[in-house]
Design goal:
The complex is a heterodimer of chains A (1283) and B (109).
Chain A (H helix, E strand, L loop, with lengths): L5 H9 L1 H9 L15 H12 L4 E5 L4 E4 L4 H4 L11 H4 L4 H14 L3 E12 L2 E15 L5 E10 L1 H20 L5 H13 L8 E7 L4 E7 L12 H4 L3 E2 L4 E4 L2 H4 L1 H7 L6 E7 L6 H4 L3 E7 L7 H69 L5 H30 L8 E4 H9 L3 H7 L2 E6 L3 E4 L1 H17 L5 E8 L5 E7 L33 H11 L3 E7 L3 E8 L19 H12 L15 E5 L3 H12 L3 E5 L2 H11 L3 E5 L7 H10 L8 E5 L4 H9 L4 E4 L4 H19 L3 H21 L3 H9 L2 H4 L4 E6 L6 E3 L1 E4 L3 H6 L2 E3 L5 H8 L3 E3 L10 H7 L5 E8 L5 E9 L7 H39 L8 E8 L10 E7 L4 E8 L4 H21 L3 H12 L9 E8 L4 E7 L5 E3 L5 E3 L4 E2 L16 E4 L5 E5 L11 H13 L6 H12 L9 E8 L1 E2 L3 E7 L5 H15 L3 H22 ...
Parallel strand pairs in A: 13-15, 19-20, 19-21, 21-22, 22-23, 35-38
Antiparallel strand pairs in A: 1-2, 1-5, 3-4, 4-5, 6-7, 6-11, 8-9, 9-10, 10-11, 12-14, 15-16, 16-18, 17-18, 24-26, 24-30, 25-27, 28-29, 29-30, 31-41, 32-33, 33-34, 34-35, 35-39, 36-37, 36-40, 40-41, 42-43, 43-44, 44-45, 45-47, 46-47
Helix pairs in contact in A: 1-2, 1-3, 7-8, 7-13, 8-13, 13-14, 14-18, 14-19, 15-17, 17-18, 17-19, 21-22, 25-26, 25-31, 26-31, 32-33, 34-35, 36-37, 37-38
Chain B lengths: L2 E6 L11 E8 L4 H11 L4 E4 L3 E4 L1 H13 L2 E4 L7 H6 L8 H8 L3
Parallel strand pairs in B: 2-3, 2-4, 3-5
Antiparallel strand pairs in B: 1-2
Helix pairs in contact in B: 1-2
Classes of the chains: A alpha+beta (1283), B alpha/beta (109).
Chain lengths: 1283, 109
């Protein structure tokens, strides 16, 4: 070692492993010789290399022997350390062919070389590896200028180069996959891209799920590999080991797949990676084996993290693409299949329609021929016309479907011509004029000339559909069709109606085909749902627009706009428009919706009654005609009507359609089953909906039988007969069972009647017990009055107000059935009132609407004397059996006991009341105001109390009103009350100052026993001035309710109670005053109304303030009744209550109050005053007349029957306009005393007419009778149309 | 307001012979007897009464017309837009829509 030069020794000590090796190398035995003898240049270079950390190698000597530093060791791999000092050709035999020329060049020329990322396939550990290097060869120049060796600095760039290459591959793949929209394309693209990058992917194969057998099969592979790969992925996955991340490494490929090497040759990979592809992110587990990528791994690159990462990224990219492609494909498949479905539907419609058309045409042609040969009123012709009409309807429907499907299929093109749409539209729409007239609907045509390009036949379809639709949903009001030039040229047509309107939810789908909103409440539930869809398609073919505005309950407007005509199109005269018979067809169909079918006027025989409910008039008539030979038939056009008829006529069987407007078949059955009187009615349901499900639905809804359309007449008859027989069997149950039911019903009726507090309640109880009333729909009871000369008859059930008023008080000798029975004590049995004896023809005719059969029973007291009579009525003639009369006899006995009990109670009440009434007395009233009073005795006890009121006329516009209360009850109190009342009346006439009147009364009271602490309020109203003046002696404040409901308490004019000596007169306040404008209400009352035990009086006043405010728009009588019921404590009044309510005569915008003496000569002036008021309200002519007539008739009644033409009495009118209604109350102050029916006499006829006019012209009417008078209230629609 | 009775001439050239009167104003229980007396004198041998323009017509009026119908050949006219039409229908008074209809019924060609 001593021979090593110093610079080398120094460098070797810094040179790490190679430094040591060079120092310890046996150089003397080596061709290069002892380092000490190396040229200085070589020595320096070696020292430099050893001390350098950059990989460096020196090629020295003729054989280019290697000396290298530590940095170069990794490049040599297993060639180190043998390479040190070895000849270059021996060390780098594997790449000598490449580097030898480079080295030679440097040695011979001295020119340095530069190699950048040079690929060198180095062999290491017996394997060739693809590696990249950047290096330079430069000469080592000796002192003599000779080249003594080659210096090489080298860097390995394999990692960077491969990384860049792999990234490029991924980028190429991503770009290529961008356009892949199907799974197959994506997979093919993957293969294609891989085939162009064999360095990293010597081969690539895709395996995909085979839907046929759910196995994953080879889908495709890069060229050269496809033949050698197994068909099933399982061949790979059975081998190899699973690596992390779902990668699976398959080794020893050449062994596994010998044929692969045949295709791929020397570069055939030794191993491959299997990467599973997840098609969709959220279905990884499910689809994990659905597809896989098999990637051959380069045999020249180790499977390091980078290579593995590359494979992973590649697989991820493919997975994402497959997921997209799958989703896209799914979407497209769905879209395509929807389109196909739509197409299929359209084709089907077209085919079906076409197939229907031929036979229909062949049926209708001969039918027309037959009809022309028959005379018009032939019965057969009538039936055939039904066939014809419905055949045409079917044809029209089929044509619409065909049109529609043609448009959908794009086979229909409009034959456009420039036409005057105004004239065209008016002509088409006018075909509905007749049917609108019949239906009572106004058809308004407002069509101006408007030129547009249109196909006239299509336009006809558009207009007819829209008008027909409007007609279907418009039950009252008008249909308006307008046409006018559009704003920007073109034309606009609108069809507006005042019909049921469309709920906003339904609007967007209105023009969809087959869309039919439920529950539309039109004339018919019929319809295909094709009309509006067809309209929209047609409008779109004209490049037009259609839109709709609708407000439920108010109507709908459909607007169709067509674009402007292109310039240059010639106008085509409107006279060349082809006209078809289409309009008639549509109008004919609409005609079929009319005739709602309630045939209440039809004379029923005593046969069983079948009620038919169907919205199709033809179907209804057909069923009626079929059944008419054996049964009576009533017809209803919808469920609601059917329910009304069922309640009125109690049919024996119901046949109902399913689809009907207003109330459908299911709703109808539900309502019938819920009504105890109808619950057992057998029901047959008719429907076009076939199938077990529909039948089941019908039966589940409560139908007894379900008949599918079409059915034969014989079918229908046999089913109806079977149902009626079954029902009859049900009714004729074993006699014992039936008897038990009857006894149970009678027992229950006895209980109900025992609880009845009034005759009305007793009758209601009877009608509620069908087993006892024999399902009667009307009942009447007429007890004899005290003298036995009249019957006062009360009614329940289906009788109109004019009849019950007219037959309310009847003479025992009159030609009235109840009177006859009461007089003769003989039962009357009338199976059919049309066949009643001459004596009762008039009564039978009057009541025929409600009563066609009846039984009248006498009512007996316990001692056998006749109390009166009762009657039961049925709306149809019926057979009456001995069992029926046995029942009515027993019912009469129960009712008689109830009536006797109620009469006794009522009589007691009446005696007490009439005594009080005589004492209270409003008998004489004034034309200055409408006055009503009410008296409520405390609790149940009937006794005379100490409350009073008076009303004293003081001139045409003035009236004195008083209310007073004497301490105590019974006769002493009544005596004092009577004395005070008389004194007050006298004082009132003596002075007009209320304080002075009370002062006089006080002085008088001091002379009486028992008058101390009596209280009194006295008010003078002056209707001319619109004021009140008043004084109160210890009495609760009177109050005035203003027209708007404001309550004013009259708190002035106070003084102590009467006859209280300890108080000094100087404490008395002077008379108080307040305004009483027209429309206000003055209320006086006694303290019983507001006082409650253990409650401050303020609470009572607060309650009264609230209750009185509610009376602002009530007539005086009703205000009294309302206050008494509203103010009543839960346990009833503890003290007597008297209320007097006064409305001053006068008129405001919303009220009209008038009072007059009971004289017929007052009628005209009263009418003129009311006419003025109605004129200010703006009431239409017809309504004005109806209101005046009803009021006039009621006044006439009040004057003649209530006040008995006694001009000291008065009658009053109180009318209010609010909430779109006018309500008129006519009050008289008496009790009708004369026979109100007065059989046959002309006066009674007139009176009957009067009652008809009172009740018939009003929307509502009711009669309230109290001991203080009779009030008739009529309500009218406030119709402002100036008709 | 009281009633007025006004003759209505037959259409020119119609050769109508039955006298026709229209009633204007109000007819009620207070004046129906006066009207009845007036009409009774006119209704011989026959009469057409036009109620179309009447402002008010009550049950006393209808009763009076009813009696008149029993006594003499009388036809009543109430046009469709008359205010008394609804009331007349309610009390079942027979009437014609127009004077022409009434004449046709009374003077068959």
């Amino acid at each position: 070692m001593s021979g090593v030069p110093a610079e080398l020794r120094m460098a070797a000590s810094l040179g790490g492993e190679m430094g040591s090796r060079i120092l310890s190398y046996d150089w003397p035995a080596h061709p290069l010789g002892d380092p000490a003898e190396w040229s200085p240049a070589v020595r320096t270079t070696v020292a430099t290399a050893l001390a350098c950390r950059f990989p460096t190698v020196l090629w020295l000597g003729d054989e280019l022997r290697l000396i290298y530093n530590d940095g170069y060791i990794p490049m040599l791999g297993d060639k180190h350390p043998a390479a040190l000092g070895s000849a270059g050709a021996d060390v780098w035999w594997d790449i000598w062919d490449i580097i030898c020329p480079l080295l030679d060049g440097v040695v011979t020329t001295g020119n340095a070389t530069w190699a950048d990322d040079l690929k060198l396939m180095l062999v290491n550990d017996g394997r060739r590896r693809e590696r990249y290097f950047t290096f330079t060869y430069s000469p080592i120049i000796g002192a003599a200028g000779a080249i003594e060796g080659v210096f090489c600095a080298v860097a390995e760039t394999t990692e960077r180069v491969l990384s860049e290459r792999r990234l490029r591959t991924l980028g190429t793949l991503a770009a290529a996959l961008m356009d892949a929209q199907s799974v197959d394309t994506a997979l093919d693209t993957v293969i294609d891209v891989c085939a162009h990058h064999p360095a990293d992917l010597p081969f690539a194969a895709v395996y995909a799920n085979d839907e046929a057998d759910s196995r994953v099969r080879l889908h495709g592979a890069t060229p050269g590999a496809d033949a050698g790969l197994p068909q099933l992925l399982a061949s790979f996955t059975d081998r190899g080991s699973v690596e992390a991340d779902g990668l699976r490494l398959v080794p020893e490929l050449p062994v596994l797949l010998p044929s692969l090497a045949t295709g791929l040759g020397d570069d055939c990979p030794e191993q491959a990676l299997v990467v599973t592809l997840s098609e969709t992110a959220d279905a990884v587990t499910e689809r994990s084996s659905a597809a896989a990528l098999v990637l051959g791994l380069s045999r020249y690159s180790p499977l390091d993290d980078q290579y593995r990462g590359f494979c992973r990224l590649l697989a991820d990219q493919v997975s994402a693409t497959l997921a997209n492609a799958t989703a896209y494909q799914g979407e497209r498949r769905r879209a395509e299949s929807l389109a196909q479905l739509d197409q299929a539907k359209t084709t089907f419609l077209a085919n079906v329609s076409h197939e229907f058309r031929t036979p229909l045409t062949l049926m209708l042609g001969p039918l027309d021929d037959v009809l022309t040969s028959l005379s018009g009123d032939d019965e057969l012709a009538g039936r055939l016309r039904i066939v014809q009409r419905n055949g045409r309807r079917l044809l029209r429907l089929v044509n619409a479907l065909l049109d529609f499907s043609r448009i959908e299929a794009g086979q229909s093109q409009p034959k456009l011509a420039v036409v005057d749409l105004g004239a065209l539209t008016a002509g088409i729409a006018s075909s509905f004029a007749e049917v609108c007239t019949i239906a009572g609907i106004e058809l308004v045509l407002d069509c101006r000339a408007a030129w547009a390009e249109a196909d006239a036949a299509m336009w006809e379809t558009i207009v007819l559909n829209l008008v027909s639709n409007a007609f279907k949903y418009t039950l009252t009001g008008s249909i308006t069709v307008t046409a006018a030039p559009g704003r920007d040229g073109g034309a606009t047509m609108t069809v507006s109606d005042t019909g049921t309107g469309i709920v906003a939810d339904h609007l967007p789908r209105l023009f969809d085909r087959f869309y039919r909103p439920a529950d539309t409440g039109g004339r018919t539930a019929e319809g295909s749902g094709i009309g509006l869809a067809l309209v929209r398609s047609l409008v779109e073919m004209h490049q037009g627009t259609i839109d709709v505005d609708s407000t439920p309950g108010q109507g709908t407007t459909v607007r169709v706009s067509l674009p402007a005509v292109d310039a240059g199109h010639s106008t085509n005269g409107a006279d060349s428009i082809p006209r078809s018979a289409k309009g008639n067809d549509y109008a004919d169909e609409a005609l079929g919706w009319l005739g709602t079918g309630s045939n209440t006027e039809r004379a029923f025989s005593s046969r069983q009654l079948v009620l038919v409910a169907d919205d199709n008039a033809d179907m209804r008539r057909h069923v009626a005609a079929v059944l008419g030979s054996r049964w009576d038939v009533a017809e209803a056009g919808n469920g609601r009507q059917a329910l009304e008829l069922a309640r009125r006529y109690r049919p024996d069987l119901l046949i109902t359609d399913v689809m009907m407007p207003e109330l459908d078949g299911f709703g109808l059955i539900a309502a019938i089953r819920a009504d105890p009187l109808l619950a057992s009615l057998p029901v047959i349901m008719l429907s076009a909906r076939a199938g077990q499900e529909a039948v089941g639905g019908g039966l589940a809804a409560g139908a007894d039988h379900y008949l599918v359309k079409p059915f034969t007449s014989a079918d229908l008859i046999s089913h109806v007969a079977a149902r009626l027989e079954a029902a009859a069997r049900d009714r004729s149950r074993p006699p014992r069972e039936e008897a038990e039911d009857r006894e149970r019903a009678l027992a229950s009726l006895t209980g109900d009647m025992g609880a009845a507090k009034s005759v009305n309640q007793a009758l209601d109880a009877l009608l509620r017990t069908p087993d006892c009333s024999l399902r009667a729909t009307a009942a009447a009871v007429g007890p004899l009055d005290e003298t036995g000369s009249h019957l006062r008859i009360t009614y329940a059930g289906d009788l109109t107000g004019d009849i019950t008023d007219r037959y309310h008080l009847v003479d025992i000798n009159s030609r009235v059935m109840l009177a006859e029975t009461a007089r003769t004590d003989q039962r009357m049995v009338i199976p059919d009132t049309a066949a009643v004896g001459a004596r009762f023809v008039a009564e039978a005719a009057d009541k025929a609407q409600a009563v066609r059969a009846c039984i009248i029973e006498p009512l007996h007291a316990d001692d056998g004397t006749v109390l009166g009579a009762m009657g039961l009525g049925w709306p149809r003639p019926r057979e009456i059996s001995p069992a029926d009369t046995d029942m009515t006899r027993r019912v009469a006995a129960i009712l008689a006991r109830a009536v006797a009990r109620i009469s006794v109670a009522e009589r007691e009440h009446q005696i007490a009341m009439s005594l009080q009434e005589r004492l209270l007395g409003l008998g004489v009233t004034s034309p200055a105001a409408a006055v009503s009073a009410a008296y409520q005795p405390a609790g149940e006890v009937m006794r005379v109390g100490g409350d009073w009121y008076t009303a004293t006329p003081l001139g045409p516009a003035r009236m004195g009103i008083s209310v007073g209360d004497v301490v105590g009850h019974g006769l002493p109190a009544a005596t004092v009350m009577s004395q005070l009342r008389s004194a007050l009346g006298a004082a009132a006439l003596a002075t007009n100052d209320p304080a002075a009147v009370i002062g006089l009364l006080d002085r008088y009271a001091r002379t009486l026993d028992d008058a101390a602490f009596a209280t009194v309020a006295y008010v003078i109203i002056d209707t001319a001035a619109g004021t009140v003046s008043y004084a109160c002696a210890g009495h609760p404040y009177p109050l005035v309710v203003g027209p708007e409901g404001t309550v004013t308490w009259l708190q002035d004019g106070r003084r102590p109670p009467l006859a209280v000596r300890s108080f000094a007169p100087e404490l008395d306040a002077p008379t108080g005053a307040a305004a009483l404008p027209p429309g206000s209400l003055l209320l006086l009352y006694t303290d019983g109304l507001i006082e409650r035990r253990s409650e401050p009086l303020e609470d009572g006043f607060a309650r009264l303030t609230a209750a009185a405010a509610e009376c602002a728009m009530l007539p005086a009588g009703q205000a009294c009744r309302t206050l008494i019921s509203q103010m009543a404590p839960a346990q009833g009044y503890a003290d007597d209550v008297a209320i007097i309510a006064v409305r001053p005569a006068g008129t405001t915008a919303t009220s009209h109050v008038d009072a007059m003496p009971a004289s017929l000569s007052e009628l005209g002036p009263a009418r003129d005053r009311m006419r003025d008021w109605l004129a200010h309200l703006g009431t239409g002519r017809a309504t004005t007349h109806d209101v005046l007539l009803g009021t006039g008739e009621a006044l006439c009644n009040g004057i003649e029957h209530g006040s008995e033409l006694d001009p000291r009495r008065s009658v009053s009118v109180e009318a209010f306009a609010a909430g779109g209604e006018i309500s008129v109350t006519v009050t008289d102050s008496g009790r009708w005393q004369k026979d109100s029916a007065a059989s046959g006499a002309s006066g009674a006829n007139q009176r009957g007419r009067g009652l008809k006019l009172i009740h018939g012209l009003a929307k509502h009417s009711q009669t309230a009778r109290t001991i203080l008078g009779t009030q008739v209230t009529m309500t009218y629609h406030l119709d402002r149309s100036a008709r | 307001m009281n009633f007025q009775l006004r003759p209505v001439g037959p259409p020119a050239g119609s050769g109508g012979t039955v006298p026709a009167f229209e009633i204007l104003g109000d007819v009620d229980a207070a004046n129906s007897t006066d009207l009845s007396n007036a009409l009774r004198e006119l209704a011989s041998p026959a009469l057409i009464i036009d109620l179309s323009l009447v402002d008010y017509f009550d049950s006393a009026g209808f009763a009076m017309i009813d009696r008149l119908l029993d006594e003499a050949p009388v036809a009543v006219v109430i046009s469709p837009d008359s205010v008394v039409r609804a009331a007349a229908e309610l009390v079942n008074l027979p009437f014609h829509d127009s004077l022409t209809d009434a004449r046709t019924s009374m003077e068959p060609a």
